[in-house]
Design goal:
It is a single chain. The protein has 2 domains: 20-113, Winged helix-like DNA-binding domain superfamily/Winged helix DNA-binding domain (Arc Repressor Mutant, subunit A), CATH 1.10.10.10; 115-178, Dna Ligase, domain 1 (2-Layer Sandwich), CATH 3.30.1490. It has helices at residues 3-8, 22-40, 46-55, 64-71, 80-92, 134-147, 163-177, and strands spanning 96-99, 104-107, 117-122, 128-131, 155-160. By secondary structure, the protein is of the alpha+beta class. Helices cover 48% and strands 13% of the residues. The structure holds zinc ion (3 copies).
Amino acid sequence: MNLITLCKMTDNATFPTPEHDHSICIRKAISVAEQLCLTRGVQLTPIRHKILELIWNSHKAVKAYDLLDQIRPVNDAAKPSTVYRALDFLLEQGLIHRVESLNAFVGCHCSDTQHDQLLLICTACNTVEERSAPLVLGALAGELGEAGFISQRKTIEIHGLCKSCHATSNTLEENATQ
Ligand SMILES: [Zn+2]
Ligand SMILES: [Zn+2]
Ligand SMILES: [Zn+2]
């Protein structure tokens, strides 16, 4: 049984379809973030808030310099260090995840708990789906335990084609052979 088959057995996330109402995702993420910061007594400053909003513009992974380009029109004093400091804060609070293989960032939809994750990264549309994949991560924890290895963080990143890009490429192929 491969990783992907294992994940499908856990009903932990739905891949964001292109048609879904993304404004609901944004509203939810921002309100969870505001609530969490309030509970933890940490400041979601305007710049941190703005960066979080920009990251949540879509489910695609965003690079730090793209965030800088987007923030300059609203805050022309913003420097790379401003963006990096805001990103560090959001990472620390678990509101976003770093996609190591792309050196980019994506919003976390389950940020009220600390967690390891499986990230499915679409190489065609850049969409990232986060799955909690308890079975996979549980098996991995067992493996690490056997090796006597203490992991700092566990993120599994898998590159491939998401459901909608896969469907589109199939349609294109079918049309090409007709
Ligand atoms: Zn969405
Ligand atoms: Zn997460
Ligand atoms: Zn895709």
